[in-house]
Amino acid sequence: MLREFPKVTIAVPLYRSRRFLAIVTDTLRTLDYPNLEILISDRHHEDDAIDRLQQEFAADPRFRFLLAADRLDWRAHYNLLLKEASGKYFIWISHDDSYSADYITQLVEAMEENPDAVLTYGQVKRIDLNGKPLTYVHPRIRDYGNPGFLTACRIAMSAGLQFHGLFRRQVLLDRQLYIRPTVNNIAADMLWLFAVAMIGRMVFVESCTFLKRYYPSSTHKSWDSLMRPRYSWNFAAIACSYLDDFARTRFERGAGKIVVYSLCGTWAIRLFLRPLVRRLWPSLYHVPGTDA
Fold this sequence. Notes:
- The protein is of the alpha/beta class.
- It folds into two domains: about 10-225, Spore Coat Polysaccharide Biosynthesis Protein SpsA, Chain A (Alpha-Beta Complex); about 230-280, no CATH class.
- Helix content is about 40%, strand content about 20%.
- The chain is built from ten helices and eight strands.
- An eight-stranded mixed sheet has the order 3-2-1-4-7-6-8-5, sandwiched between helices.
- The N and C termini lie far apart (about 40 Å).
């Protein structure tokens, strides 16, 4: 049990969230951590989700609502919430995902037990909108080791699961480590994690699990059809910009750039050849249970 309960900021970025209102409300009522700041923000205001949440939680002093129609993209919206927060620890919670009551508590306990950690995170179980489990092979790597370029590469290839974890906020602010734009902001979260892995340790909490919903209109689902060879070169450029700012040594920076461009070049060739391979061997690209 925690002797003290440091403040945790939960940030909920809304976007056309009316259909997920019951999920968001249930999550915010279920979490049992006793020292929360809850930021609810809608930068498009295309439905009444934030208005309904403001009515629902009007008497709860933990809540703060940010409403504007400046139409920030998701990346800028996430960065804004990180800057607006006041908690020692920080987490983004998606409007369409579900979390157990002790989700925050478990991650805070792991953070307090590991003062060198910049992030604690748990497992992800994928489901469709009807709650049906989706087949998914979790990355085998759990202990990512000490911060640095090699760890950052392993993180970048681990499906970005760590993005749903709890961050030590002041470390990110001190380093001015915000999510940088990519083409259409695709995989901007994964590249940001690449940078985070160079400045601090990540701790996996195996007993901590949340449910992530996948469906045809979900953001990450739509990225599958947008991937083209040109994205790989953009990703390489962004990764190298993070190396320039957060690599620990000049050697790590230089060697890292060589590795990044080599990996992204290989990936670009693979993406270029994928349509041909898909036609010749369609079974290689089909994963049962991921069609939702």
